[in-house]
């Protein structure tokens, strides 16, 4: 028996599987719907295989990619205020990953001996269990209740619990939603919140365009590698023959829509075969695939988002340059 397995059994960390409340399209559905038809796109959720997740971690430590650093600083600075105000019986985090930034909240709890439950919600069981084990070592008082599932399938099946709950959604992942979809997601979140519950949301802000463009065009080319990796994901999953060398990374701030649009652009005319779907795609030279949108928000846009979700902002934490916001809201 491996050490890891022994520790799992000792600590008895088990995940609760959260069933979706609506159908979640799989890669095949998504490719048929979005990649085989024009304009071509693919959901950014497919970036995150093992290599993609590693590359994303590397993006976060490039000098150009400010969001992770600024959000961490904000959490370090304001976690105590958040915990003092919300006094959560449970912290529920959507898309928790390795729970790196969330540790600031646990530290703040520890500082005032406020013991609580942590329910990380994520799609990857491996990461969930390993992170939970790690956390149970680091914070012995922390009660862990990992939830395995995909928030794209809806939030209606999250386990009920005793209020007050602090919902946490960090990293400006909300930016991957089109504005209207972000509102819908927030409304859904709002509908599972009860009076006394809070939401802590990380949101990236509209700022000088050169800063935004640089953040998605780092000089080491990590973001380019991350973007191109989705072609390898498709190759592996669907037995396709995309040649990443024949595509170019592009990321540009669209000032009108106030969002970064990330694309892969075909360097030349080429035919790609997707064996498992028995389909082929002909790309003309310069034709692109939209791989990600990263919506940026003004202070006003943030207010609109929360108003539409019928949530009341109690605190708006931001850095001096207003590069990133942490919003605390209640129902
Ligand atoms: C994880 C969606 C917040 O939009 O900034 C980083 C992903 N893409 N660099 C973002 C990403 C390219 C990131 N989010």
Task: Explain what the structure shows.
The protein has 331 residues and is of the alpha/beta class. It is globular and about 60 Å long. It has ten helices and 15 strands. The strands form three sheets. Strands 1, 3, 4, 5, 6, 7, 8, 14 and 15 form a nine-stranded mixed sheet that branches. It has a four-stranded mixed sheet with strand order 2-13-10-9. α7 links the parallel β7 and β8. The protein binds N,N,N-trimethyl-histidine. N,N,N-trimethyl-histidine binds next to β13.
In short:
The protein is α/β, with parallel strands linked by helices and 331 residues long.
Which characteristics define this entry?
globular; 10 helices; 331 residues; nine-stranded mixed β-sheet; alpha/beta; four-stranded mixed β-sheet; binds N,N,N-trimethyl-histidine
């Amino acid at each position: 028996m491996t050490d890891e397995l022994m520790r799992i059994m000792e600590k008895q960390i088990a995940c609760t599987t959260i069933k979706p409340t609506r159908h979640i399209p799989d890669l095949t559905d998504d490719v048929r719907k979005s990649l085989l038809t024009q304009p071509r796109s693919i959901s950014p959720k497919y970036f995150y295989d093992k290599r993609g997740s590693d590359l994303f971690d590397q993006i976060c430590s490039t000098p150009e990619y400010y969001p992770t650093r600024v959000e961490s600083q904000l959490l370090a600075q304001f976690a105590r205020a958040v915990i003092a105000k919300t006094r959560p019986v449970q912290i529920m985090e959507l898309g928790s990953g390795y729970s790196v930034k969330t540790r600031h909240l646990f530290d703040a709890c520890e500082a005032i001996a406020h013991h609580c439950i942590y329910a990380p919600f994520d799609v990857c069981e491996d990461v969930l269990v390993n992170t939970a084990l790690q956390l149970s070592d680091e914070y012995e008082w922390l009660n862990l209740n990992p939830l395995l599932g995909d928030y794209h399938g809806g939030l209606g099946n999250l386990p009920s619990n005793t209020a007050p709950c602090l919902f946490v959604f960090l990293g400006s992942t909300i930016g991957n939603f089109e504005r209207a979809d972000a509102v819908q997601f927030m409304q859904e979140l709002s509908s599972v919140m009860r009076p006394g519950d809070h939401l802590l949301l990380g949101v990236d802000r509209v700022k000088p365009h050169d800063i935004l463009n640089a953040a998605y065009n780092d000089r080491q080319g990590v973001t380019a590698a991350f973007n191109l990796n989705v072609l390898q994901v498709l190759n592996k999953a669907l037995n396709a023959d995309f040649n990443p060398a024949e595509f170019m990374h592009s990321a540009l701030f669209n000032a009108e829509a106030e969002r970064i649009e990330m694309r892969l652009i075909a360097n030349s005319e080429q035919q790609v075969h997707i064996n498992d779907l028995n389909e082929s795609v002909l790309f003309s030279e310069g034709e692109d695939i939209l791989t990600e949108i990263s919506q940026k928000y003004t202070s006003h846009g943030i207010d609109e988002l929360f108003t539409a979700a019928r949530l009341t902002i109690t605190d708006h934490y931001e850095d001096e340059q207003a590069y990133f916001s942490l919003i605390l809201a209640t129902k």
